[in-house]
């Protein structure tokens, strides 16, 4: 499951146009050598619970965006657009996620869940 999650994370990173520094932050700042090893060979990765939680949030955010926007390009562009919602303060969702705390990923995921499901999930 770790390898599949990391492969999905790196594929999402490509789609979202993330650079390695952004991916490292979203993963919780592993050592650069560890990050490079994971990216090169996710099958051999043994990430900790924090990394798996972060990957899970990213996968959930991606899935929620695909459900929310009928066009894939709109879904993928949303994370970079300024957002007037109070939790973003005019910044983008990516800006919020790159603050580095796992709670920031949770907030973005929760925001999308409430937007899609009206909080009934």
Outline:
By secondary structure, this protein is mainly α. The protein is built from seven helices and no strands. The mean pLDDT is 94.
End-to-end Cα distance: 24 Å
Mean pLDDT: 94
* Biggest sheet character: none
> What sort of overall outline do the alpha carbons produce when their principal axes are compared?
globular
Helical amount among residues, as a percent range? 55-70%
- β-strand percent reads under 5%
Q: DSSP helix count? A: 7
Assembly type of the shown chains?
single chain
What order do the helices and strands follow?
HHHHHHH
Low-confidence stretches: none
Rg measurement, Å = 14 Å
Label the structural class: mainly alpha
> How many strand elements?
0
Total count of domains:
1
Describe the structure.
With 121 residues, this protein is an all-alpha fold. The protein contains 7 helices and no strands. The chain starts with a helix and ends with a helix.
Name the features.
single chain; 121 residues; mainly alpha; 7 helices; globular
Topology:
Elements: H1 2-16, H2 20-26, H3 32-40, H4 49-68, H5 72-78, H6 93-97, H7 102-117
Helix pairs in contact: 1-4, 4-5, 4-7
């Amino acid at each position: 499951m770790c390898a599949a999650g990391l492969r999905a994370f790196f594929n999402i990173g490509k789609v979202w146009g993330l650079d390695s520094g952004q991916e490292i932050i979203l993963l919780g700042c592993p050592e650069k050598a560890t990050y490079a090893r994971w990216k090169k060979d996710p099958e051999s990765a043994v990430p900790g619970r924090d990394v798996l939680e972060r990957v899970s949030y990213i996968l959930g955010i991606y899935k929620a965006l695909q459900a929310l926007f009928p066009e894939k390009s709109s879904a993928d562009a949303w994370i970079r657009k300024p957002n007037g919602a109070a939790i973003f303060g005019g910044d983008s969702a990516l800006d919020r996620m790159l603050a580095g705390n796992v709670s920031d990923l949770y907030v973005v995921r929760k925001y999308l869940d409430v937007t899609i499901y009206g909080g009934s999930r």
